[in-house]
Amino acid sequence: EDELRQLLEDKEHPIAYDGFEPSGRIHIAQGLLRVINVNKLTKAGIKFKFWVADWFALMNNKMGGDLEKIRTVGEYFIEVWKASGMDLENVEFLWASEHMNQDYWLQVVKIGTISSVTRITRCAQIMGRSDVESLSAAQIFYPCMQATDIFHLGIDIAQLGMDQRKVNMLAREIAPKIGKKKPIAIHHHMLMGLTPPKDTEATGADAAIAKKMSKSIPASSIYMTDTKEVILNKFKKAYCPEAQVEDNPVLEYCRYIVFEKVSEFTIERPEKFGGNSTYKSYEDLEKAFLAKEIHPADLKMSTAKYIDSFLEPVREHFITNERAKALLEKVESYQTTR
Question: In what order do the strands lie in the sheet with 184-188?
Fold first, then answer.
């Protein structure tokens, strides 16, 4: 916090970045939550660089390793963010394949020479991998490349999810050794999936990562172009134990998405069950849920209506904008043929 405060005092427009692998349909953790986080930073005067990690997606065999498909999915992601209200005036999209020049690869080699294989493989989580033995030779380069991204782009702030914290710590550790400044790491929360969380022995941040939303499990994810009917049905089946806050994905949606976009939350229910009730903060909503003043079914359906309203402009964009419509059709066709 002290480093961040000092940066904001010293530099009028610091530069932050996040990288993403184009891979399949985009869910609201990548869509709405990312827009909320980026807009918070740009509102504070920070310039944001998005690193479209197309070659990284190739190394992770996303979209079957087809670079043309990966490029299409990347363009689709950008269209989603446009329709979701991202502050594009202060955002720049950079395609990795267009900026990974000789200086970039020299930096990758330098980082590799001062890092042990053991230290690098500890970062395997950034690729969604926990089994080091299953890593390909190309994936061993991945953490060195991601650390290089930070230095190559000249960023001040690495704003990524908690699943990326290990590689950001690697970058902070090696920065003095290669004559670079340490990046400030700001890690956002990993939104849970809607299905019951898996049992895990992990604790703290690792436990949260293990329970995060997965686009490979459709029932656990709300996709950015899901219809109202689909959204309501997914929330109807969502895991939401009565009077329980921990590991409750519906309350997470309320905290990290709904209350970031509206100033009050209304629970809708028939008069015979108490009628509507409105809450002006997440804390008040949580307190009422813990006190069993709100039934899980009412919380789920009310949350679903808010989420649906946030996604309506996105659905409309992919219906009325011909380029966006064509991109979505291609991406959806990839899901059925891969």
Answer: 91-95, 47-52, 15-20, 157-161, 184-188
